[in-house]
Design a protein that fits this description.
CATH superfamily: Domain of unknown function DUF4822
CATH class: Mainly Beta
CATH topology: Lipocalin
Order of helices and strands: HHEHEEEEEEE
Number of domains: 1
Distance between the termini: 74 Å
Largest sheet: 8 strands, antiparallel, barrel
CATH architecture: Beta Barrel
Length: 145
């Protein structure tokens, strides 16, 4: 009887050990804010579909300037951002995962849409007011510095 009890106890112990569920660790997916603030972004291109020559000429000039120099943009976790040439800087915040609001609640408030954001690529689209009568949609492409 004692052997049967030991055998039963040993069988139950083996059953419990063998039925242990395998644990798989899934790495956490970074949030939009984490991806955005993890890098300094090198601006590589401005693109627009505008047929207005003043807009296309201005954007062409920007692209020439980018190729002649290096332009970076940094988004900080504290809600500030800045371009390396000091052309634009200030406050930013996320609205959902795809929208950035700049200078929220001020007369300078603007909104941009995140079209692509990975650990190495960032594409942002926004409206740019060329002059009082012309606003165009711009796609700004950046890569990890």
């Amino acid at each position: 009887m004692k052997n049967k009890f030991n055998l039963l106890f040993l069988s139950l112990g083996m059953l419990l050990v063998s039925c242990k569920k395998d644990e798989t660790v899934t790495p956490a997916t970074p949030t939009t804010k984490q991806l955005l603030t993890a890098n300094t972004w090198k601006v590589t291109n401005y693109a627009t579909t505008s047929t207005d020559t003043s807009a296309t000429n201005e954007l062409s000039k920007w692209n020439s300037d980018i190729k002649a120099t290096t332009l970076y943009v940094t988004y900080n976790a504290n809600g500030t951002y800045a371009y390396s040439d000091s052309s634009d800087y200030g406050a930013w915040e996320l609205s959902g995962d795809k929208t950035i609001i700049y200078a929220k609640g001020t007369p300078d408030q603007s909104i941009a849409t995140i079209d692509k954001l990975t650990t190495s690529d960032f594409v942002l689209s926004y409206e740019w007011k060329v002059n009082n009568s012309l606003t165009v949609k711009v796609a700004e492409t950046s890569t990890k510095k």
